[in-house]
Amino acid sequence: MRGAVRAFILGAVLLSTSPSQAATISGTLSIGNTRTGGAIVYLENTQHAADRSQGTHAVMDQKDLAFVPRVLPVVRGTVVEFTNSDDVLHNVFTPSAAAGKFDLGTYSQGEVRSITLTEPGEVLILCNIHMEMEAHILVLNNPYFAVVAQDGSYQILAVPSGTYVLRVWNERVLPYTQTLQVPATGTLTVELQVER
Amino acid sequence: MALFADPHAVCKSRADDPADTNANRGSGGNFSTLTEHILRKELPIRLEEKEVAYMRRRDILIRLLLLGNTVCVLWAGPALAIPVFARVYDKSCRACHTVYPQLNPAGEDFRAHGLHGFTPVVKPLKVGSLFEVPGTLPVAISFGVGEDISKVDTPGQSNPTTTHFNFEFLSLLAGGELGPHLSFLADYAPIITNTQTGEIQVNTRLGLGFVQAHAEQWGWLTNFKIGLFELPLGVSPRVHRLSVQPYLVYGLNAFSVLGQPPPVHGGHDEEGEAAGGYGPPGTNAFIVGATQVGLELSGLQPTTGLSWALGMASGSNNRLDNNASKDFYLRVSQAYGLHKVGVFLYYSPDLLGPGVQDQALRLGPDFSLYSRRFQLFGQFLADYDSNPTDRGQDLWYYGAFLEGNYRFTPAVISLLRTEYAWTPRFDDTAQGGHSRVRRQLWRVTGGGQWLLLENLKFVAEVTYGENHEGISEHTVKNWSATIRLVTAFWPLTPPGLNEWLTRRRPR
Q1: Which ipTM was obtained for this model?
Q2: Which fold has domain B5-502?
Q3: CB–CB of A152/A37 below 8 Å?
């Protein structure tokens, strides 16, 4: 009986702290006056900062002498696999301290090398052989992010209610932050305009 | 290009040699030709009216060619305007080059695979189970046009600066697979220019031409090639050198260091002399930087980075052998990631023709460091000739260079090179000879290259050097500069032979 009471109390506590309801944040992003894709819109909230994504995999390919995708947001703890679909040698390395300045070496078509990204931050991905190849991985604390589509639209799903800081990342824009109060349900439309 | 004009020295490298097309491709000036003028007391050069008219016509022709080429390059588009491999494999130049012709590690890998590894977009024609021919004409054109400026100051005489707008070179490149285990590569420059005088010359010698067999067994990539090819130097004058300047250390031989021709006729440029004295005698004696006729077996173990090349060569550059002896060479290198160290050894039982035996040795280490933006490479060579003047007196001389390339952007690259060569005192007068030499040569080259298009680049370089002969205390100072446009392209891309042969006739 005592065990059942404990379980009930624990369940009640968990239910009270976990998001039972969630909202969607959507809108468009304009850089200057132009709707632009490729940026990342993400939320920061200390309440969910401990969220990790252990074991989750993401893939960044090397194809036609380019990293694909060029911008990749992941939750920290994600294993990022770097494939090589080109029939030339490629190399993957980063000078970013947030990722420990890793170098996955030089490898040929069909090979896959991976790295687990545990620290939040921006990771610049480069190829030692092809100077023009460049990509960015944004390691985030929670899964509440979206890659802005080419028409400028974005949508962040299943966001628990609460107060968040919304940020926009793009390699060519100034840092942008906005505080948001996310409702328990429904869609919150946030139009974003950032400057270069 | 050579580099040092001195009445006591005839330092001449392959850029002045019509047969070495690649060196000419890079030549920025021609001090040694100027040396000849100095020796013949022909300076200052006076131009006759006919010559002026000729030069005007030549400049008009060059400008028309440049305009035509630019139109071809721009009109053809990136998929068509690129040379052999890029066209056959439908790849961007930057897949294998930093700035052409310099290879990046992916290009080195393609080279180590015997020019195999990519899937041809233009399908080859099968001839039996092991032999294929390229499905399109595997040829490209490369040429350069630009302004060359140079000045040579000899002891007690300051000579005027010379400038020439030159059609620098025209070269035909060919290469490709001949099946899963065979490939070929060739380079022929039908037209080259004496950059000092602007004189356009017809060249009949191949610059490069070999057939190569490739196999992969027991973890080794092995290649066997036969024909006319580069020696396996640590820094290849053809696929690593960015500068228009050939490497000083690769262009020296005992005769250029001593400033006199070989004691026998076998090392002379008979054709050149017959054609009007292009090049001082002796300049066609063996240098490591020239392509050699021979055969070579090489291996690379990708897992360990260990590689070697063992070969036999005629030691007569790209000419028929001038004696019965064959030369041997060995190179061993070890890669650490994209960095490499190696050592090169070349031995010739006799470099000269019949009647005089001159054993020769070339030995030295090299290194290369590679990163995305920066490359640093260097070479040291110790050179030995046992009997260069036929007086029984041996000669040691040494040379080294260090070069850095820095890429500001994917399209803009800079280079800085410093070179030094010297010989201790050589004196064969006690043996009845007349050579007394103690020479020091140094040179600094700086410049940059800008890729305007993938296959069109702008080159600007400046070089300053000195040639000091220590016994007579003579110093020759020279500087040269060049700005030029260089391109490689193919103006016509017919349908692939396979597609053409298999297409159905319209009913």
Answers
A1: 0.78
A2: Porin (2.40.160)
A3: yes
